[in-house]
Amino acid sequence: MSIPLDSSGPQMKDYASSQMCTWCDACGDYGIWTAIKKALVELKIHPWQALLCFDVGCHGNMADKLNGYRFHGLHGRVIPFAAGAKIANRTLPVIAVGGDGASFSEGVGHLVHAIRSNYPIVFILHNNANYGLTTGQASALTPKGQKMNVSPNGIPERMLPSMDFVFSLQPTFVARGFSGDIPQLTGILKEAIAHRGFAFVDVLQSCPTYNHFATHDYLLEHCYDVGKEGHDAKNFEKARQLAVDTSQRIATGVLYRDEDVPDFCEELVPRKGKTTELIEEVQSADITRFYPEFI
């Protein structure tokens, strides 16, 4: 992808916001928030050179906790907005962020077609296995039988197998990170931003207030970096196996990557040979001749 660079490079302070963070102490959002800023800074992308799109949820409160072009959308609907922005201006790095509740419930259709269409955007899944903003209701990624605030008898539904589901859609980039490992997550996001098509990044994070089964300590103990074990990210079947099997250990890192698949914009026949972006082709039109019909 084309990333507009500035040789002078931004600093972390350039992404600073005057708004105070209001997440709970030890929330995984802090780690993801930091990794996003570090990845953009290390890629020398200034706040005015990227678009950050946020869904509704605890993570969505990040929209005013950093500087830059930001959009705070509707619950479960962040992906289509981000895709539209990218199609309008392909030179613009676009990062969409959503929670497990919105992304695998009312927004799951958007996720399906984003992977299918291979939109050239990054999607970061804040995965804390519950609806944190609305006080700990179960999400589609909460384990069956798990007791939650409004489910004292345990969740009756089966947990949606998210990673197996994503791999069933023939993705071109799948990674998993942990909010407690900021250096690794920063590296993952840098690779995701540079990816040719749709980059799905599942970030496991603690929710200290409502998720008491996948805690920070649990994730710290069970997560491991596949890159340190020589994993070949081109091996689709092995990547899928590593992503799905979390019974003993949880694989993190870039699990799968295919740079040979054209992204959505590259497949658009009317755009073949165009040297301009859609935003540059917008023109004013004189509509005064239509006024009499409405007077």
At a glance:
With 295 residues, this protein is α/β, with parallel strands linked by helices. The chain is 25% helix and 15% strand.
Write structural notes for this entry:
The chain has an eight-stranded mixed sheet with strand order 2-1-3-4-6-5-8-7, with helices on both faces. It is 25% helix and 15% strand. α1 (29-42) crosses α6. The protein has one domain (27-294): Thiamin diphosphate (ThDP)-binding fold, Pyr/PP domains (Rossmann fold, 3-Layer(aba) Sandwich), CATH 3.40.50. The protein is globular, with a radius of gyration of 20 Å. It has 295 residues and is of the alpha/beta class. The longest helix is centred in the N-terminal third of the chain and has 14 residues, at 29-42. The mean pLDDT is 94.
Key features of this structure:
8 strands; alpha/beta; globular; 15% strand; 25% helix; single chain; eight-stranded mixed beta sheet; Rossmann fold; 8 helices
Helix and strand topology:
Layout: H1 29-42, E1 51-54, E2 69-72, H2 78-88, E3 94-99, H3 100-103, H4 108-117, E4 122-127, H5 162-168, E5 173-178, H6 182-194, E6 199-204, H7 216-222, E7 223-225, H8 236-244, E8 250-257
Parallel strand pairs: 1-2, 1-3, 3-4, 4-6, 5-6, 7-8
Antiparallel strand pairs: 5-8
Helix pairs in contact: 1-6
CATH superfamily grouping: Thiamin diphosphate (ThDP)-binding fold, Pyr/PP domains
How many domains make up the 3D coordinates? Answer: 1
The portion of residues assigned to helices is 25-40%
Rg, nearest Å = 20 Å
Arithmetic mean pLDDT: 94
Poorly predicted runs: none
Lateral strand order in the biggest sheet:
2-1-3-4-6-5-8-7
CATH hierarchy, class: Alpha Beta
Strand content: 5-15%
